[in-house]
C-alpha cells in the first residue's frame, strides 16, 4: 500500500470564512492543523505532497514537496487534485484536506480495501450519511480525464465522479472524525475536542 500510493494534502483554499487565514497553518491543540492530518493518516515512509497556494515555505518546512495550483482564479479543490495527480509517481493518490484534524487513522487502508473489492477508479469517504468528496482515493491514470473536465470550465467534483467507476468507503458512526474547520467558532470547538479527546 505504501509503495503504490501518494498522500496529497489540499491546503490551497482561500478560507474566506476564516478571515482569509491559511487554515492548514492555524494552530489547534498546539500544532498546525496540517500536522494533525499528517500524523493521523500518513503511514511512515509514504510519499507525500502538499498543495498550497500561499505560505509555501512554511509548508515546505514540514519536510514534504509543495506545489501550487496551475490554474488561475482558485478554481477549487479539483485544481489541487489535478496537481497531485500530475506530481505523483504512484498508481494511486489519496487526497485529504488540511482542515480535518480528526480523520480516522485507518483511512488510507480502508480506502484501498474498498478500491480492491470493487475495482473502482474513485473511492470517496462516507460517514454513513454523507459523502466527503475531497477525502478520497484516485487512480493516477484519471489525470487526462480530470484535465479535460477542468479545461471545459466544469468545477463540480460530483459531476466528474459520475464519469468513472465510483465506490464509497463507509465509516459508519464516525461523522465526528470527518469534521472540518471553516469558522473561528469551529476552530475553538475543535481545539477543545482535541485537547480532551472528546467527540464534537
UniProtKB/TrEMBL annotation:
A GO CC annotation given for this chain: cytoplasm
Binding, Mg(2+): 99
Keyword flag GTP-binding: yes
MobA-like NTP transferase domain ranges (all copies): 8-163
UniProt-listed Gene3D superfamilies: Spore Coat Polysaccharide Biosynthesis Protein SpsA, Chain A
Residues engaged in binding GTP: 10-12, 23, 69, 99
Domain of life: Bacteria
UniProt xrefs under Pfam families: NTP_transf_3
CDD domains found in the cross-reference section: MobA (cd02503)
Catalytic activity: Mo-molybdopterin + GTP + H(+) = Mo-molybdopterin guanine dinucleotide + diphosphate
Assigned keywords, A-Z: Cytoplasm, GTP-binding, Magnesium, Metal-binding, Molybdenum cofactor biosynthesis, Nucleotide-binding, Transferase
Classification via InterPro entries: MobA-like_NTP_Trfase, Molybde_CF_guanTrfase, Nucleotide-diphossugar_trans
GO function term, MF aspect, one: GTP binding
Entry's free-text remark on domains: The N-terminal domain determines nucleotide recognition and specific binding, while the C-terminal domain determines the specific binding to the target protein.
Cited function: Transfers a GMP moiety from GTP to Mo-molybdopterin (Mo-MPT) cofactor (Moco or molybdenum cofactor) to form Mo-molybdopterin guanine dinucleotide (Mo-MGD) cofactor.
The name this protein goes by in its record: Molybdenum cofactor guanylyltransferase
Organism this protein belongs to: Ferrimonas marina
Amino acid at each position: 500500500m505504501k509503495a503504490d500510493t501518494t498522500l496529497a494534502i489540499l491546503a490551497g483554499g482561500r478560507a474566506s470564512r476564516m478571515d482569509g487565514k491559511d487554515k492548514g497553518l492555524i494552530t489547534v491543540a498546539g500544532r498546525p492543523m496540517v500536522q494533525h492530518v499528517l500524523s493521523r493518516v500518513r503511514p511512515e515512509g509514504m510519499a507525500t505532497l502538499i498543495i498550497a497556494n500561499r505560505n509555501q515555505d512554511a509548508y515546505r518546512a514540514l519536510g514534504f514537496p509543495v506545489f501550487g495550483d496551475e490554474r488561475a482564479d482558485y478554481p477549487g479543490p479539483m485544481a489541487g487534485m489535478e496537481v497531485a495527480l500530475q506530481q505523483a509517481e504512484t498508481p494511486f493518490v489519496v487526497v485529504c484536506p488540511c482542515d480535518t484534524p480528526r480523520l480516522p487513522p485507518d483511512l488510507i487502508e480502508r480506502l484501498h480495501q474498498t478500491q480492491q473489492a470493487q475495482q473502482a477508479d474513485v473511492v470517496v469517504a462516507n460517514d454513513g450519511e454523507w459523502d466527503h468528496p475531497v477525502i478520497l482515493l484516485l487512480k493516477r491514470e484519471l489525470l487526462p480525464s480530470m484535465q479535460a473536465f477542468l479545461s471545459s470550465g466544469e468545477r463540480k467534483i460530483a459531476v466528474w465522479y459520475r464519469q468513472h467507476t465510483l465506490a464509497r468507503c463507509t465509516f459508519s458512526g464516525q461523522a465526528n472524525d470527518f469534521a472540518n474547520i471553516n469558522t473561528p467558532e469551529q476552530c475553538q470547538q475543535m481545539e477543545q475536542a482535541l485537547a480532551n479527546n472528546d467527540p464534537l
